[in-house]
Amino acid sequence: MTTDSPLIIALDYPSLDAALCMADRLDPERCRVKVGKELFTRSGPNVLEALHGRGFEVFLDLKFHDIPNTVAAAVLSAAELGVWMVNVHASGGARMMQAARERLDQEGLETHLIAVTVLTSMTQEELAATGVDADLEAHVERLARLARNSGMDGVVCSARESAMLKRACGEDFLKVTPGIRPSFAQAGDQRRIMTPREAIDAGSTHLVIGRPVTQAEDPMAALAAIEQELAAG
Ligand SMILES: O=c1ccn([C@@H]2O[C@H](COP(=O)(O)O)[C@@H](O)[C@H]2O)c(=O)[nH]1
C-alpha cells in the first residue's frame, strides 16, 4: 500500500512484539514506518516481512557507511528485502554512494536511496569536535550536493536545512527530516528541531517522528494532533 502522507513513524523498540503492537495501531494509508538499528539488530528481516504483511512501506534506516563494495552489497540486500527506502552516510564519499546507486540500477530496483548529511542530534560545536571546521549548514549543503551528484534520491537532514536544500538541490530531491518536535514534545537528544508544520513549510518532503508519538501517554492522540497541525496549514 502506498500513501501520500509525509509522516514516517520511527518504530524504535527493543522487540518485534513491541514494534508490531504499535504498528497494529497505525494505518498504512496514513503513514509509513521506519525500522532502525535497534529493532533490526534484534529481529532481523522478520520485522520487515511482518510490516510489509500489514501493508506498510518501510524505511530501513541502517545508515550504511563502509567501503564502496560493502555498502553497495548491503544496499542491494536491503532493497531485495522489499523496503521502500534505504540510506547511507554521505560522508562515505562519492565513490561509495555511486557504487550503491549502480548496484540498485543494475538489478532494476526502485528502492529510494538517500544519504545522511549531518545527524539532527549534532550542534555546530559537536561537528567541529569531529574535525569539520565548516559552518554546519554549509557542510550539510556540501554533503547534499555530493549526494545528488552521486545519484542519491535525497538526503536526511534537519528541517532547518530544508529551505536551503530546496534551493540548492531542487524540489524533487527528497528532504527526509527527523528531529521533528511538536510543541507538546521534549527535544530529548535532538538539537536541530522543528515542529511538523514548520518542517513542511520549509520544504521537508518527509517527517520522521519517533518518541513524540511512540513514547506519548496516548500515541494515537499524539499522532492525531500532528495530523491536525499539518491539515490546518
Ligand atoms: O539525523 C538523523 C538521522 C536519523 N534519525 C533517526 O530518526 C528517529 C528520530 O526519532 P525521535 O524519537 O523522533 O527523535 C530515530 O530513529 C533516529 O535514529 C535522527 O533522529 N536523526
Topology (elements, then pairings):
Elements: E1 7-10, H1 16-23, E2 32-35, H2 37-43, H3 46-53, E3 58-64, H4 68-80, E4 85-89, H5 94-106, E5 112-116, H6 124-129, H7 136-149, E6 154-156, H8 162-169, E7 174-177, H9 196-202, E8 206-209, H10 211-214, H11 219-232
Helix pairs in contact: 1-3, 4-5, 7-8
Main β-sheet, spatial strand arrangement: 1-2-3-4-5-6-7-8
Instruction: Assign the structural class, choosing from mainly alpha, mainly beta, alpha/beta, alpha+beta, or little secondary structure.
Output: alpha/beta
Bound molecules: ligand LLZGTKA7
* Uncertain residue segments: none
Q: Number of domains in the coordinates? A: 1
How many alpha or pi helices? 11
CATH topology: TIM Barrel
Secondary-structure arrangement, i.e. CATH architecture: Alpha-Beta Barrel
Range of strand content: 15-25%
Describe the structure.
The protein has 233 residues and is α/β, with parallel strands linked by helices. It has one domain (7-232): TIM Barrel, CATH 3.20.20. It contains eleven helices and eight strands. The protein has helices at 16-23, 37-43, 46-53, 68-80, 94-106, 124-129, 136-149, 162-169, 196-202, 211-214, 219-232, and strands at residues 7-10, 32-35, 58-64, 85-89, 112-116, 154-156, 174-177, 206-209. Strands 1-2-3-4-5-6-7-8 form an eight-stranded parallel β-barrel, surrounded by seven helices. Helix 8 (162-169) links the parallel strand 6 and strand 7 (174-177). Helix 1 (16-23) packs parallel to helix 3, helix 4 runs parallel beside helix 5 (94-106) and helix 7 packs parallel to helix 8 (162-169). It is globular, with a radius of gyration of 17 Å. The two termini are 26 Å apart. The model has no long low-confidence stretch (mean pLDDT 98). The structure holds ligand LLZGTKA7. Ligand LLZGTKA7 is lined by residues 10, 12, 36, 116, 119-120, 156, 178-179, 188, 190, 208-212.
